[in-house]
Specification:
Blueprint: H1 7-18, H2 22-29, H3 33-40, H4 48-58, H5 62-66
Helix pairs in contact: 2-3
């Protein structure tokens, strides 16, 4: 079974650490609030253009945002 990259959950973790809401991310990226919500909760796979826009706003590398987390890991995906 293929393991999904935890993009949405890591994105949510980074957003919490920098104090950014879904509404703020939506406004800064040009994505709809619904699209941001769906990406965070894994209901939608982001397009490449959306990923690039998100990375520019949250200032985290793609590698950090997509690294697999093990239970009990310390720190934020953006460190």
């Amino acid at each position: 079974m293929k393991s999904k990259i935890p993009f949405g959950s890591n994105l949510q973790e980074v957003m919490l650490s920098i104090g950014m809401s879904q509404v703020a991310l939506s406004r800064k990226t040009g994505l709809t609030e619904a699209a941001v919500h769906q990406i965070i909760y894994g209901k939608r796979e982001p397009q490449l253009s959306s990923i690039v826009a998100i990375l520019k706003v949250i200032q985290v590398t793609f590698e950090k945002l997509t690294e697999l987390r093990r239970r009990g890991d310390e720190g934020c995906a953006g460190e």
